[in-house]
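Subject — a protein and its fold
Encoding — discrete vocabulary of local shapes:
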Amino acid sequence: MDVKSDVVGQTTSFWCGVILTLLLSHKHIHLRWLKAHVGYLGNECVDQLAKGAITKGDPFLLPKPLSYLKAEIKSAALSIWQDNWDNGETGRSTHDIVPRVSNKPVGWNREEIMFVTGHGPFPSYLQSSNR
């Protein structure tokens, strides 16, 4: 018997249909433990296919989906940004209030942003920028 032509040629949906038909047509199903694979045709077929899969044929690589690559790039960019933010020389007072970088807005209004960053119509800022 050529296992490859009998089993591999059939689609998964075909076998699912066969199994479903069997399950629906029998009211009482008994499950038994089988000692090893020896002597049981179904197990022998599966065993032969598994051995063939690891010894024959060419290995192939599945490309990573675009969503995975985008997530990796975003994660790397956030990591670099966080490192720069943690080790930077400017914005330390803001860093004390917002220590973690994020692509999500903090939800502050204009006045709150000016107050936290110190960039606004404050005498100290106006003097330092000669305005």
